[in-house]
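Fold these two proteins, one after the other.
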Amino acid sequence: MLPEKQKSETKRVLKEYIDTLLIIPSSTELEPLLEKLEELHASIWRQTTTLAAENLDSELRSLFVGSVVEIINISLEREIIALRFRIPDPIWSSLLLLSALGMFAFGYQTGITDYRKIFELPLLPIAFSLVIVLIADLNSSGVQRRFKVTQLPLLEVKKLMDKDLY
């Protein structure tokens, strides 16, 4: 619904944007990709600002500007939460110390009470280890992650864009 001048350039930039987002989870070099995303945001925003000079329905213009702002905001949130913020070292140290103290206390209590059920004893260390592994995985980014977030929604959008339905 955009004028042809902005439509073709916006489609091209959005396709490149989706391709870049799909590369990020498997990339070891994030900085160049994040810089490329910033350039693509600027390019999309330039196309958006050129709509002010066009004879376009104000509601349509408002919806498009809102969508572009939302794309940029979601991208920034994703970058900050998933790629920039990491658990500080003092918190990691505290977590490991608390885990060690908890397991020591459990072992001490088990020794005092003479509780010797062989199958229940390993449950606490396994539970602590599992929690630490999950936290560490959530704290990692990119290739190191054991639990991957699906890229299926982005792939579906890319497939729709490649079909050129609009």
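Now the second one:
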Amino acid sequence: MSKVKSNNVFKKIAKGLSVSSTITASTFLHGPPVLALGLTKLFGQSKKVDETNIKLTNSWLGINNWLIENVLPETEWDIYVDEQLDLNMDGRYLMMCNHQSWVDTTVNQYFGVSRMPLTRFFTKWELIFIPFVGQAFKILGFPMMKRHTKEQIAKNPELKKRDLEEARKSCQQLLSQPFTLLNYLEGTRFTQEKHEQQQSPFQNLLKPKAGGLALALNILGDQIDALVDMTIVYPDGVPGYGEFWLGDVPRIVVQLDKVPLPEWILQGNYEEDDAFRAKFQQWVEQIWHEKDQRISAIKAKYASE
């Protein structure tokens, strides 16, 4: 191995150790207070406790962002925000995004921590049993969904109504504070294999699942400030989490657009009205076609540079 290569390997190891040790230390610094304060909610809700936990979480995210800006200077960020999108820390937003890598969540946090309220997303109720992680999701107000299987619902249709009511309660809890509720409409990370299995009509995306967005709009739609479409593109290839934190991602492109909400969108019942469901799905697919074209244009722009 040449001296130059040896030095590069050493720098990579040193960077990896410094990043991982800083994130670990930060997690141990911020995690226990969040969990301890969360236990006090067993005796009643407290707005002050919620605000303190959010401040602690944003502090943890802030350290991650400091690492990104100071330890990973190799990564160039190109961020574009729709002029019609007035983002602030006191807003209430629904956000949808394409999903390619675990890095997507870090990208979302990097952008949002100083521009938008803490980002939350739907999580499965079963995660509550994962030590620390599940409890943190619950304490921070992530909507936790109890979902019965299709087989269980077929035997007892009332379970579907129960699931929807649980989802409604989870979403309504967000209304006591500013929030950003994120929905990855594809439901899973994009891979070429999944794309081919689905026979997706989109070049850069999997088929969108409209049900979660319909549910969130039904519950929160008349009380949100905007429906936001975040598009994330990695022009040099989709990275893994380790690659990102080692500084091996040359460029990340983020574009945020405001999605206008038609008047009819808040007036139907997605679960029970077949005509409304079909119209809603067509509306989502049109958004997805526009996103697909946007991604292709971004890739073409950076490929020509």
